Each structure stands twice: as structure tokens, then as C-alpha cells.
Amino acid sequence: MTPALENLQKQLKQLPGIGYRSAERLALHLLVSQPARLPELVSALEHAARSVRRCAVCGNLAEEELCPICSDGKRHGGQLCVVENVPDLAAIERSGAYRGRYHVLHGKLSPIRDVAPEDLNLGPLLARLAAGEVTELILALSNDVEGEATCHYLTERLPANGVQVTRIGFGLPSGGGVLYADAVTLKSALEGRRHYS
């Protein structure tokens, strides 16, 4: 293996979900099967690195000061959905079930990983809540200890202006059975039950 190929493979392996074999396959595919696409790929990466930044309001990805969601006047301004990361926001958007606005924390509180409140995008969120425009705060954070701790931290710091706080429901996936669900999922499913009619 040449040093250049080895370095390319090493860089690809640092991407999430890419192991040694996948990195090797990608590197060889780009260099052997699709060498003509390399300049286009490099150009797209460089352009994205120069152009994409955090939205000044919510922390989502943007190419202008505001992301497309914050710029959209048709979004429900009173609803604010708090998510851990941009991929979480993208997943909710793909569902088409939510037409409000977002706030991206870029993580969750984790003493074990040395993630403290000042490491998260919390200041702008608290400022948005204090401005009084938010009527419902939807907490769409992970159903784990760190997600729960982050939710608790946020609710303790809410301004006393009558903001309704809700938490997304967790439960069994569509098509999933009780037999194969873990204890946390079953607990959430039972706690999040509703009337059946």
C-alpha cells in the first residue's frame, strides 16, 4: 500500500460508521474505479467547509446567517423542539410531523465525557425562552440517563412565563414486538400509553 493510499484510508476511517474494511473499499473505489470523480468530491468538500456554518438563532446548519427553517415564516413560532444534534433535527424533518422551530444543543450533559452546560448551545436557547415567544418547549432528547439529565437541567432553568414543556414519546417501533424490546423501551412505552378507542 502506498503512503498516499494509506493516508486516505486513515482519513476515511475517522468518519462515523466507517471501519477498516469500509475505508479500504472506499479509498480503492475512489482511486481505481472512479478517479474522474475525485476532483468533484474534493471541490464539494472544500465548498461545504467554506460555506456551511451554524445558524445564528438555532444552531442548525446554514449557509446564510439563518438556516432555512428559521427563515421560513410559515413555521409555527410558538413551538420550539430541542434536539441534541443536527441529524436528530433532520430525522424529525423527514417525518413531516412537525412544523415548528428548533434549537440544536450540539450534545447533551455528560459528566463522564466532561460535557458541562457551558459546552452546549444553551445560552441562546435560554435567551429565546426569556424573550417570551415560545409557548411550548418540546424536548426531543435521547431516552437515556444523559438525555434525562439534560431535560431536567433545562426545565430547572425555564423562565416563569408559562411555557408548556412536553417530552417526545418513546416506545415500541412500528412492527416491533414486546418480546424483543429492551427494558427501557418497554418502560417508556408503558409510561407513554394513551386512551385506545
Describe the fold and architecture.
- The protein is globular, with a radius of gyration of 21 Å.
- The longest helix is centred in the first third of the chain and has 14 residues, at 20-33.
- The chain has 197 residues and is α/β, with parallel strands linked by helices.
- The chain is built from 8 helices and 6 strands; from the N terminus they run H-H-H-E-E-H-E-H-E-H-E-H-E-H.
- The mean pLDDT is 89.
CATH class of the largest domain: Alpha Beta
Number of beta-strand segments: 6
Largest sheet: 4 strands, parallel
Strands side by side in the biggest sheet: 4-3-5-6
Helix content: 40-55%
Secondary structure tally, helices: 8
CATH architecture of the largest domain: 3-Layer(aba) Sandwich
For the CA atoms, what is the radius of gyration?
21 Å
- Provide the residue-averaged pLDDT: 89
Q: Which term fits the overall shape? A: globular
Topology, please?
Blueprint: H1 3-13, H2 20-33, H3 38-51, E1 53-54, E2 61-62, H4 68-71, E3 76-83, H5 86-95, E4 100-104, H6 123-130, E5 136-140, H7 145-156, E6 164-167, H8 183-191
Parallel strand pairs: 3-4, 3-5, 5-6
Antiparallel strand pairs: 1-2
Keywords summarizing the entry:
8 helices; 197 residues; Dna Topoisomerase Vi A Subunit, Chain: A, domain 2; Helicase, Ruva Protein, domain 3; 2 domains; two-stranded antiparallel ribbon; alpha/beta
Describe what is shown at a glance.
This protein is α/β, with parallel strands linked by helices and 197 residues long. The protein has 8 helices and 6 strands.
